Amino acid sequence: MKRILLTVLLFIFLGIISHGQNLGDTSGLKKAKGMIVLPSIVSFNLSNGQSANREITITNRLPEKHQYKIYLGDWERDSVGDHKYSPANSISRSCARWVAISRDIVELEPDSSAVISVRMQLPDSAAAIEEMKWAMVFIQLVNEEKALKTEKDITQQVVYNFRVGVHVYQTPPNLKRVYLSMLSFKNIVHKKDSILYQIACLNEGTQQLKVKCNFEMTNLSTGEKTKLPQQDFPMFPGQKRLVNYLVPTGLKPGKYSILATADGGDDMPLQASQAEIDIQ
Q1: For strand 4-14 and strand 154-170, is the pairing parallel, antiparallel, or unpaired?
Q2: Which strand (E) or helix (H) includes residue 268?
Q3: Residues 6+ apart with CB under 8 A from 269
């Protein structure tokens, strides 16, 4: 009887913690295990015809020697903030065609690092600076297969595929408009045990925004306030974002005023909307 080989692909997209070009305190990374990639964001502010270089450092904190593949791709955020990935140069806002990486594969001994150069060269055309563009540099561990066990003529094999993505942003310096609008604020679910409100925002400017949304309820009889956790998120130009807030259970019955706000930064007006609800 032929044996059956069952391959389990474990694809893990690793998040990394840093703050763009400013790496801050990296002392804790000395004890970290796995694949460390810094920074998480490389930003360019180039005019047409200009070029610049940035660097990405890859560190192997695994106990064995490993190879890493480096390549470009595209990505977008959907209306709830999830990332959607696609091949390089497949979206209209991609800057991948202007990016060159110095190496497409590196091999690292344990506790060693490699520096990858990311070069962006803008064409000398007015169209190159009409809008913000972005891409992603992926650093991926070359597949390693480990056989687990054979049972009843079935051999299981696990393929580990670790991948980290570094955001690449190109914002031309001539793009100055920043504006966030609140398209709507409405109750989308109203049941006895589940009341859900939704804020819809739109980035109408030309730059990426860092948005803060807040949701506060005030009991109109007692003045007691209930504030839900702030939701922070980035928004690309032209992006619509939906933000949901679930009214907490256990509130005292009565009428409440709700204030929803969306803050896109100091250079624009605060967006706000109010509603009233009767909690039974």
Answers
A1: parallel
A2: none
A3: none
